[in-house]
């Protein structure tokens, strides 16, 4: 089995932006810049080295199954590419990435609970009642 891509690679803001924009040519070029060989990328994502080379040269990726295979192969949550996903079906490359994704999911749920209470008069769940909204606009 091939070693996963080191977690520190995913801390790159430029790389995360390229993932969010589904700019796979840039993602691949940045990975190569981090020392990840084209052959290794091909092996991880289940593509041929020639297909990875075409993408590095600028071929855009629009196929959702290929985008999912890329996310899964690289070990990043599909949500980082703006794809709907089942959080239990995807496995981030490292425990740190898994915790980061879980923290973001908790923040989204908390935010939605507060918005629902403000806009629709929904009851705020008990675990959120002790949290306070910011006193000044952010």
Describe this entry's structure for a reader.
The protein has helices spanning 13-20, 24-33, 38-45, 49-56, 64-74, 95-120, 126-129. With 138 residues, it is mostly helical. The chain is elongated and about 55 Å long. The protein starts with 12 loop residues before the first helix and ends in a 9-residue tail after the last helix.
Layout of helices and strands:
Blueprint: H1 13-20, H2 24-33, H3 38-45, H4 49-56, H5 64-74, H6 95-120, H7 126-129
Give the terminus-to-terminus CA distance. Answer: 46 Å
Instruction: Summarize the amount of helix as a percent range.
Output: 40-55%
Strand content: under 5%
Uncertain regions: pLDDT < 50 for 5+ in a row? none
Report the major sheet.
none
Secondary structure tally: strands: 0
Instruction: Return the average pLDDT rounded to an integer.
Output: 81
Instruction: Quickly give the CATH architecture of the largest domain.
Output: Orthogonal Bundle
CATH topology of the largest domain: 434 Repressor (Amino-terminal Domain)
Class computed from helices, strands and strand pairing:
mainly alpha
Helix-strand topology string: HHHHHHH
Number of structural domains = 2
Annotation field: number of helices = 7
């Amino acid at each position: 089995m091939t070693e996963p891509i080191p977690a520190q690679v995913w801390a790159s803001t430029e790389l995360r932006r390229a993932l969010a924009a589904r700019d796979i040519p840039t993602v691949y070029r940045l990975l190569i810049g981090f020392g990840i060989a084209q052959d290794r990328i091909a092996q991880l994502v289940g593509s041929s080295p020639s297909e990875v080379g075409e993408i590095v040269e600028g071929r855009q990726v629009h196929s959702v199954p290929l985008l999912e295979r890329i996310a899964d192969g690289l070990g990043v949550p599909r949500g980082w590419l703006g794809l709907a996903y089942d959080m239990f079906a995807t496995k981030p490359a490292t425990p740190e990435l898994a915790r980061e994704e879980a923290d973001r999911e908790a923040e989204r749920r908390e935010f939605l609970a507060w918005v629902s209470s403000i806009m629709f008069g929904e009851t705020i769940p008990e675990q959120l009642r002790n949290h306070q909204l910011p006193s000044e606009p952010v």
